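Journal club prep, shared notes

We agreed each person brings one worked example of a sequence with its structure written out as tokens. Mine is Electron transport protein SCO1/SenC. I'm keeping it raw so we can talk through how to read the token line rather than staring at a rendered picture. Sequence first:
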Amino acid sequence: MPRFPVSRAGAPADPRRRAATLWLGGLALGGLLAGCDQTPLGAPTPVFKGIDISGAAYGRQFALTDFNGQSRTLADYRGQVVMLYFGFVQCPDVCPTALTRAAAVKQQLGADAAQLQVIFVTVDPERDTPELLRDYMAAFDPSFMALTGSPAQIKAVADEFRVYYKKVPTGNTYTMDHTALSYLFDREGRIRVVLRHEQTADDYTADIRQLLAEKPA
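Then the structure, token by token:
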């Protein structure tokens, strides 16, 4: 079974957290086994570099607020491939790595770059203000969008995507453990692929190109 990594600033993952994350990973794979095939009749079945979860009964929607104060749902990005990632601004390495890779993917897409929307969902709404999220996204790519909400709203979206996150005290402050996966949606707004943190920009680009090449069902 593939490992589903958890980001934790500056410390190895606790075995109990790792076990919980692997359990969530098992649920994600279960979505693949239980899901229905969404490939149009007669079309070749895509072979993704990531985990194909087409037809999964989770990760179907979100309702949050962007850093401009505008309400956002998945339907706002219909017609684009969406890459969704959960993280937090003060993450020292995993989140910056994920966003740097996403920026590299957009460069690799060339003329098709505008057809990909990268969305970052904060798991630390207490500290990640809209202004901070706007500046953080701009540091990687001006097209990247960040979403936030109340703690209850964030939890509801994380639960919908089976994402693990937890506040971890560190001295007089805290960090966040969180699932470090990227989710891809096709142009119709259907969740299709989970990509692991250790995968390369080339892997991400290859799967996004497959989704861009698909004709509407």
